[in-house]
């Protein structure tokens, strides 16, 4: 059964490692826009065995740029807090433990809905 109790307002998500993200809800529009970003990315220069990983990373970064409204626990090289920017979001999601936590905790519930509808 699909439950219609999905978050509709921005919310805070703890990723661990002292990082919290203020996020838009993960909606169909966000996912479709991120998928389009993957389709629009030229991967012809990528080694063929890296393309699947590059696609996944591109999708996660696009989701991050579309969904992250703010954050805590993210700083520059000197440790001073910084505001989210597209480049900063990409840099944050280049850190595999952060990208993994973002994928599991933010996109995980959406993936569960995908599984539920295919049962």
Strand order of the largest sheet: 1-2-3
Q: Nearest-angstrom radius of gyration?
A: 15 Å
Percent in helix: 40-55%
Morphology call: globular
- Please provide the count of β strands: 3
Count up the domains.
Answer: 1
Largest sheet: 3 strands, antiparallel
What's the helix count? 4
> Strand-and-helix sequence, N→C?
EEHHEHH
Which stretches are poorly predicted, pLDDT < 50 over at least 5 residues? 112-116
Based on secondary structure, the structural category is alpha+beta
How far is the N terminus from the C terminus?
Answer: 10 Å
Summarize model confidence as the mean pLDDT: 88
Strand content: 5-15%
Please tell me about this protein's structure.
By secondary structure, the chain is α+β, with helices and mostly antiparallel strands. It contains four helices and three strands. It has helices at residues 28-40, 51-67, 86-93, 96-117; strands at 11-16, 19-23, 68-72. Strands 1-2-3 form a three-stranded antiparallel β-sheet. Strand 1 and strand 2 (19-23) form a beta hairpin. Helix 2 (51-67) packs across helix 3. The protein is globular and about 35 Å long.
